[in-house]
User: What shape does this take?
Amino acid sequence: MSIRCQQTRAVYKPRRPEKTVLFEAIKRHYKTWRKNSIRSHSKYIEREFTNYLGCGILAKGFGHAHCDNCDKDFLVAFSCKGRGICPSCNTRAMVATATNLVENVVPGVPVRQFVISFPIRIRHYLQTHTILQAILRIVIKEIRKKIISCSPDIPNSQIGAISFIQQFGNTLNHHPHFHLIVTNGVFDTPGDELLFHEASLIPDDILEIEECIRKQVLKYLGKQGFFDQETIDKMLGYENSGFSLNADVYIPYWDREGLECLIKYCARPPFASENLRWNGPWLMYHLPKPTHKGKKFIQMEPLEFLEKISAFIPFPYRHRRHYHGVFAPNSPFRKRMTLAARKCSRKGISLTVQKSVDKTKKVSLDWAELIKRIYLVDPLICECGEKLKITAFVTHPAEIQRILNKIHWPTHIPDFDDAYIISEWNICQLTPETEDGFPPLETQLSETERPDSPFPENNCDPPYYDDYSDPPHEDDYGDPPHEDESIDPPHYED
Assistant: This one.
């Protein structure tokens, strides 16, 4: 008796954004949040939420794909290409950024990640693009000076750096800080050659960079009128200044996969939508890692959640990453960097593909290639194994409705629910017929009497059945972090 084993082929399944917790929360509560928000919001924030509501929805339009082998048709929904809250578009942007930097910018040289965070007292002043750019230049300048001083003495030596400005923390809090990928050494360009000399950095050098950054940043904020000289001198005298510079992550020149993972970590989305859960009328967000107080999740009202994620939407026409030194677009050595990076990334590739790469001036990945890199499944491969062909893009409303009605698919475009009235509760329930409104002391709870916890003592967190992990990130509860709480992705060791 023989048993025939049928091999199953991995096939891409389109996502259903309308069935996610994030989509439901935004659809239900956006108009109410917009109406009752304390601060005014720009049009680009409204545009970001509106576009997200139609991302991946077939009723907004789609591409038509056909398989000639089995004569099947497939519909591919359009994306919103948002930059703030759409998890799908943010993930594709992350993968595209990492792929472009590894294959077209960073050559085969060792790099080091620098992560600089600032004390809570000055984060309030880091909300404008001008101030962020000025402080970023200070950070780059101090790192460059130290790397050059720790490298061989070479005239006109240059470093290469890529900076990422992040506005979010581990607990969905506003936490402006910088992630920088810096070459661990300097470049020397005698003639047409490209030479690299590695630097020798020790922990004391990192501490010295941190101290120089602290002095220069406080000096700059003093010139802007945010602090007087007495306050600056007092902050410089603190034993724990709140400035934190971590440079423990080191990637050797041969680890291109490690470099790509590091860039993905720097360009990751502000939050993981799969970590959202409903807990009655509240939203529960499972933290990627516990805080220093052992907290594993945060619970908030939907309006509070929308207020938090709206602060992570970047300003329009602003770059989310910046290039410095030899990686800068106007650098005379940028073309040499690109050629060196392509030589590293095309090892093992056929000669025909290498020639096409050499002719390409700008490399950008299409939708199908990005999906393949994220899910390891080609979305343009049919169940039969043949390649699908995109035959048309359907955008006319009447044609969209005709096709969707034929396959019994929803034809309505989602819209925000109407705003509802927020109930206001009097949190101080005063007792009538008393002198001060409070009950007598003998009827008050004693210090040992406390309300029962909603969870058992041996299980302080609600049950969480899926383990969605994310690289660790620094939170800003209470005092600034110690050395053992620094930002360090878990899959790298120095």
